[in-house]
Every structure is written in structure tokens, then in C-alpha cells.
Amino acid sequence: MNTVRALKSIIKPKVFERLHFHPDLDSLKKVIRPDLLPVDFGGDGLSLQELEDAQEEKYRKNQDLFDRIDEIKVDESLRPQKLEDSDFLGYYGNFKKLDID
């Protein structure tokens, strides 16, 4: 429980209220179905190692997608120039100059 107290001191109260701590695996199994829990935690699901291997395989399988995403950049030459002052739009980004009839 020292870990819980340490977390409580550094986490915002609203966030801390959303966390649930279980004293043992039996109380955890009352909240989470055993087929969703890894075998390592007394469940019927895959082991943590099997889950890690499956996730790593997904990353490897989609590596080309991740590489393409890393290469995406904004073309700043297409960005419109800032308007200093305009009779029609007012100052750039300022909506206070609205004439409503």
C-alpha cells in the first residue's frame, strides 16, 4: 500500500479516483473476466510473453506503414500568409471586428 500512497501524492485527485487497486487476484477476477486475464495473473488468456510476441509481430508486419507515417510532413509553402490588417477580415485571427447590422 506504500505504492498507492506514493501514487496518491503525485496524481491529481480526480485521476486517482478513477484508479482501482485490488488486494488480490480474486478481487480482480470479480471485475475482469478470467478469459481476458493473462495466464500469468491466473486467467485463461494468453501469457504475457505470448501477448508481447503477438504485438511485436503486428509492429513488424506494419513496419512499412510506420515508416510512411514518419515521413509525413507539412508543406509550409501551402500555408496561407498571415494578414496584418484587412478591412474585410480585420486583424488576422481576431474576431472582435465584426460589424453586425
UniProtKB/TrEMBL annotation:
MF terms (GO), sorted A to Z: phosphatidylinositol bisphosphate binding
Protein origin, superkingdom: Eukaryota
GO cellular component, one term: membrane
Domain CRAL-TRIO: 6-43
InterPro entries registered for this protein in UniProt: CRAL-TRIO_dom, CRAL-TRIO_dom_sf
Name of the featured protein: CRAL-TRIO domain-containing protein
Organism field: Zophobas morio
